[in-house]
Amino acid sequence: MSKAKELYYEKLGISREVLAFGEQIVESLRDRFAAIDDTAECNQLKVIQAMQENRVSEACLYGTTGYGYNDIGRDTLEGVYATTFHTESALVRPQIACGTHALAITLAGLLRPGDELLSPVGKPYDTLEEVIGIRPSEGSLAEYGITYRQVELLSDGTFDYEAIQKAIGPKTRMVTIQRSKGYLTRPTFSVAQIGELIAFVKSIKPDVICMVDNCYGEFVETIEPTDVGADIMAGSLIKNPGGGLAPVGGYVVGKEELVNRVAYRLTSPGLGKEVGATLGVNTAFYQGFFLAPTVVAGALKGAIFAANIYEKLGFKVIPNGSESRHDIIQAVEFGKPEAVIAFCKGIQAAAPVDSFVTPEPWDMPGYDSQVIMAAGAFVQGSSIELSADGPIKPPYAVYFQGGLTWEHAKLGILKSLQSLIDERIVTL
Ligand SMILES: *Cc1c(COP(=O)(O)O)cnc(C)c1O
Predict the structure, then answer these.
(1) Distance of alpha carbon 338 from alpha carbon 214, whole angstroms
(2) Which of 14, 214, 242, 343 lies at a C-alpha separation of 20 to 30 Å from 118?
(3) The whole model's pTM is what?
(4) How far is the CA of 127 from the centre of ligand 1 (A)?
């Protein structure tokens, strides 16, 4: 390692011992990093090809105001998303407030009173419980007479095909499949696994709509759920596809007829995709999507680096150090609250923004325990940027994701380790 690099690590509070430990891990990951770079290269080409095919021009970078009629930047960007994800249509909008909103309008746009929604992969993401009405909530699908059924995964994290077959009935209109584990400890599904599940569902009931929650999954592989049969798929622009530059937004891609119905829910019946000004966000949306394959590669390297560091130190890491990856989330089980807190302090201390603040556990609305969060992001709540959070309850696990660059993710993980060592929780 160069003297200059060592000096800056020292200035940032990383001891020689921690640095040497980290370098040894990086050395052991060369082949995996090369495979990630290869995926990023493929996805970069995919995005550039989509931009060229849709004839993105300088005029696309300007925005509209008011109704946003004939917003060429918006319409062309939706073409770029559709081409990239190999779908007929796309809805990519700053008016979609977050990932939950993208998923909520997809469900509400496609389901009607009397329909049933099925999750064949166990419990969905926390915020979806209120959207569906699993936890009673105002405005939920349940209030509109839409019922819900769930089939748990088998104990090894695979699909319970027998129970899924039984759960599909005459009312089943839609199936929702969450790719990423979110804050659960089940495995994240590969795109191939999702394809098998969709094929199975369609073999029982061909006209059921298969939707995928693709949050945290975009560009991790060279194919996406829409390449293996998903009819519609949604995600957040302050995660992977925004590339860290999108300041807000969400997307929905899929069959044209379905995307149109979602658009009627987002804006208004009759108006659909025709309205929705982009104000000044188009450049950030295009540029973020262009950078997303590389940004996701950096975040993935960070996740694998963290897994291998903490696995070597004897902690349980999910996924483990050598497993293949299908999202950018890494969980580390520390078994004690002090360790979760020290880890998050380290991540915070590595941030480009707010590095000087100390994160503390607090009573976050909607959670049944205190939660600690570390983030020093350019975009509020952006979790494609380096961030970590942990509920203060057993098994005292911390969930870690993001990093706009591999170099920043690496610094964050080294800082977390340094923090655990300084607090005498871990010794090398
Ligand atoms: C983040 C996430 C969501 C919700 O996204 P928000 O932007 O936080 O509303 C939904 N599902 C999964 C799997 C997620 O990771």
Answers:
(1) 33
(2) 242
(3) 0.96
(4) 8
